[in-house]
Every structure is written in C-alpha cells, then in structure tokens.
Amino acid sequence: MQFVTILGSTGTIGQQTLDVISRHSDRYGVFALTAHSNVEVMLQQCAQYRPRYAVMQHEESAQQLRQRVQAEQLHVEVLSGMEGLTEVAAHADVSIVMAAIVGAAGLLPALAAAKAGKKILLANKETLVMAGQLFMDAVKLGQATLLPIDSEHNAIFQVMPRLPYKDLAEVGVNQIILTASGGPFRGYSQAQLQEVTPALALKHPNWVMGAKITIDSSTLMNKGLEVIEAHWLFDARPDQIEVVVHPQSVIHSMVSYVDGSILAQLGNPDMRTPIAYGLGYPERIASAVKPLSLIEVAKLEFEAPDTQRFPCLTLAYDALAAGGTAPAMLNAANEVAVDAFLRDNIGYLDIPRLIDHTLQALPVEPVASIEQLLAVDAQARAHTQQLISAMAASPARKVASV
Ligand code: NAD
Ligand code: MG
Fold this sequence. Notes:
Blueprint: E1 2-7, H1 12-22, E2 28-35, H2 39-49, E3 53-56, H3 59-71, E4 77-80, H4 81-90, E5 96-99, H5 107-115, E6 119-122, H6 126-141, E7 145-148, H7 151-159, E8 173-180, H8 190-194, H9 198-201, H10 211-219, H11 221-234, E9 241-245, E10 251-257, E11 262-266, H12 272-280, H13 294-297, H14 312-322, H15 326-342, H16 350-361, H17 370-393
Parallel strand pairs: 1-2, 1-5, 2-3, 3-4, 5-6, 6-7, 8-9
Antiparallel strand pairs: 8-10, 10-11
Helix pairs in contact: 1-12, 2-3, 4-5, 5-6, 6-11, 6-15, 10-15, 11-14, 15-16, 15-17, 16-17
This protein binds nicotinamide-adenine-dinucleotide and magnesium ion.
C-alpha cells in the first residue's frame, strides 16, 4: 500500500487523481487532501476517501472544516496555511505527492516534497517556470522521483530514452516537439480577439481544466510555460523545443531523433492517462480512459503557431532566453493579468501587453535563492497590478501608453 498526498485535491487534476486512485484501492491510500477554501467539496472528499489530514489554505476555511468533520464524526486532522501544505507534502508516511495546486502557490509544497525524496507527480508547471534550477537541484539532492503529469511532458517522458545523459545529442535526440491544441481562438482575427470575453475563453475545445490554465491555453501562454517546463525537465535548449499546433489533441507530444525517427504518444485527451502513468510508474495501471479509435479520429492536422496573434508564446521563449528571474516575473505578471481578465477588469489583448510591460520594466537577476524568487514574484505582481490600476483610473488609456 502506498500513501498519497494530493495537493489541490478539489481542482480538476485533484479530482481526476482521486478518480484513478478509487479504482486501485488495493494499491493506494489517501494520506492528505488539500484545498484553497472550498469547504463543501473538501468535506465530501474527506467522507469518501478518509484521509488522515485535510489542509485548507485559509485559516477561516480550516475552522469551518474542523467543525464540519467533527459534526460528521470523521477522523480527519485539519491543518491550515503553507505550513500545513508543506507538512503533508514531506510527511514520512507519504510515498507519492500529486502537486496539483494552480500557480505560484504550488511552489513551496512541491519543493518540500522534492527535499523529502518523494515520488512527485508534477502537474503544477508554475513550479518549474518560477524555480526550475532550484527545484531540479532539490529533486536530485533529495533523491526524489520526478514524473511530469502535464500531458505533453508526460508524453515526452514516455518516449524519451531512459539513459542518464549530459545533453540530448548524446542520446540521439534532435528535438522535442510540443503539440498545442491552438485553443478556442485559433482562427480568430485580431479584431475578434479584441472582443473575447472570459465566458468565451473558458470554453476549451478538447480539455476540461481549471480557469487559469484554460485562459493560458487560449492565449498560448500555457504552451509558453510548457516550453520552459520542457527545458528544465529534459535539459533541452530553447532551439531544441518546437511548438506545433495540432487541433485534435490526440498526439500529446513527440521526440525527434537523429536517425529520422519521430516517437509520439497518442491517446484521447483525458488527464487520467498521465495521472495513472505517474501513479503506477514504472508499471502501467488502468485509468478508465476510453481507448483511442484512430478510425473515429480519421485525420490528424498540424500547423505552425501564429505568434503575431498570440504573442504570449514569444514572451515565454524570450523570458527563457533571458534566464535568471525573468521566467518567474513572466509567471507572476501572467497570473495577475489572467485574474484581472477573469474579473472583467481588463480586455483579452491586455494580457500579453501587461506581461510585456512588466518584463520590460523590471531588472533580470541571476537566481540565488527561493526567498529571492518569492520577492521577485511579489514585485512583479505589484507592478502588473499597478499597471491595471492605472488603466482603471483612466479607462480610455490603453496599457501600451501607461
Ligand atoms: P484548478 O483551478 O481546477 O484547481 C486548483 C487547485 O489548487 C484547487 O484544489 C484549489 O483549491 C487549489 N489552490 C488554488 N489556489 C491555491 C492557493 N493559493 N493555495 C493552496 N491551494 C490553492 O486547476 P487545475 O486545472 O486542476 O490545474 C492544477 C495545476 O495543474 C495547474 O498548475 C495547471 O497548470 C496544471 N495542469 C492542469 C491540467 C488540467 O488538465 N487541468 C493539465 C496540465 C497541467
Ligand atoms: Mg499541457
């Protein structure tokens, strides 16, 4: 029996992880569940999965949950805050940690799991975007096992050589090819993009995901973050990572080898496949995902991404090339901009503009410590927020002129 902590259990990935685990109750037990503030869903998960711990990010939500679990006579210890999250991520009784918190909030608990040598199922790509080098160092030092859950990186992991290597050329790899669905606005003109509302952007054609990553997918920032993620996971230079738009989302990514072979992993777009792969690794376990019928799919299409209309992809490549604290700033500015867009405080095309302006305004430093990265994250958030406030104060002014 292996015990699992699920960071972000009330989210899309968290719930799908519980779905896979519930099909293998002979192999996996739930040690801890964590959420931001959704007491109702957490209570229902506690009743169903009987974890030893439940962690709420907010103290007030934790207090509510404590009363509710007592009333229902559930034997769950309720913790709160970052301290509670890092405790259940690093606890000696835990073997597997699913890191599925969204955004920068996922960094410290994922890092705690790495230092404690856990098998980490990493969905929270923001951890690698913000602190790639420090996180990979912690994985090595803690002798943790890192398994990518992001479908593209999981696909690449599945078709990558298992040998240790110093660089990709040594194992005959030419290039990593990340596939992108292109999102719901692939065919949109600039004028149409200008009018995009949160409700429209929240409708992804192929995947059911949390709000932040759904918006990121529509702007192609998600692919940009994934380029940075691939750089750290597979030791790939930016020029070794190509992005190809593939609207069917059937090929989840590919690796191109020096002999002309391209290896791909295919499947229906359902995150339970990479989740089951991570949980079972190195074995394969059933995920209940419907097998892919190539006859039903009938055709697979590919095209180049349009970085004119979707500049977020270029912003991410540029931040990776700039190195140091630039990707952490990119991530922070993006989180603030996406949040403002979801609240209807800015327009859709303001998202890349705000990120660009934030990156232009702040200095890039070499990465020295997690404390420094957290300070850079806070500074970039404050800067983007200031730009948004200036826009609100003078609605006629576009961010480009702030
Ligand atoms: P979601 O919004 O559905 O869920 C997020 C979870 O994190 C929830 O449980 C929420 O309570 C928790 N959370 C949010 N803010 C928090 C905070 N400040 N402190 C503590 N907990 C907090 O998101 P999701 O779609 O499940 O995505 C989770 C992560 O997985 C993201 O990093 C995303 O990029 C990545 N990912 C998701 C998918 C997908 O298909 N959903 C695919 C690939 C990667
Ligand atoms: Mg992905």
